Amino acid sequence: MTQISKLELKALVERLSLMYFGKNFNHDVFFNGHLRSTGGRMVFPKIGSRILKQKVFMEINPKLSDEDLPGIIKHELAHYDIFLTKGIHRENDRDFQNLLKQIDAPRYSPLHSQAKSFYIYQCTAAHHHEYSRHRKINLRKMRCGIDGATLKLVAEKHLK
Question: What is the pTM of this model?
Fold first, then answer.
C-alpha cells in the first residue's frame, strides 16, 4: 500500500510524463479506493461521441506498493500519449504494446495476480455431483442442478 499524498502523486506523474514522453500532464490525478484488480486508469469523459479533453483525469489504485506505482503511472501515461497521437485505442493495439516495451512499463497490473479462492460443493445425493465456484453460495437456497439434492461445502482452495 502506497504512503504518498495526493500532491506527491501529482508531482510524480508530472515528472514521469516529462521524463518519458516530453509532455506536461496538466490534468487531475486521484487515488481511487474502489479500484480492485486494476492498477489505475485514464478517464476520457465524453458528451455523445465527443471527448472532453480538458476534463481528462487519471485514477490510481491506493493498494499499489511504492515499487509498482511508477510502472502503473507509466502505463497510464502511455494511454494518454497514444490518445493524443492516435485517438481512442485498445490495450492490445500493436503500437500501444510497443510503447510499453520502450518505456519499460508493465502490461498488466500487479494486483490482478493476487490470491484467488474457489469453493467446491458436492451434492448430498448418491451420485455426489461436484461444483466449483469462485463465490460462496447460499446453501439454503441453492440445490444440485441435476437431481435437486442439497449441497454441502467440501473444500475451499486459495490459489496464488
Answer: 0.72
CB 152 within 8 Å of CB 140: no
DSSP code of 27?
S
Domain 6-112 of CATH type 1.10.600.10: no
Could you identify the residue written with the cell 451420485? 127
Q: Give the residue numbers annotated as catalytic, written as ranges.
A: 76
| Kind and range of the H or E run holding 119 | strand 116-123
Phi-psi sector, 87: left (phi>0), alpha (psi -120 to 50), beta: left
CA separation for the pair 155, 105 (Å, rounded): 38
Alpha-carbon dihedral 73, 79, 81, 84, rounded to 10 degrees: -140
pLDDT tens figures, 72-130: 999 999 999 999 998 888 889 999 999 999 999 999 988 865 557 789 999 999 888 99
User: In degrees rounded to 5, what are phi and psi of residue 52?
Assistant: -85, 95
Q: Element (H or E) spanning 146, and its range?
A: none
Residues with Cβ within 8 Å of residue 67, at least 6 apart in sequence: none
- Structural domain boundaries of the chain? 6-112, 116-159
Q: State the Cα–Cα distance between residues 73 and 80, nearest whole angstrom.
A: 11
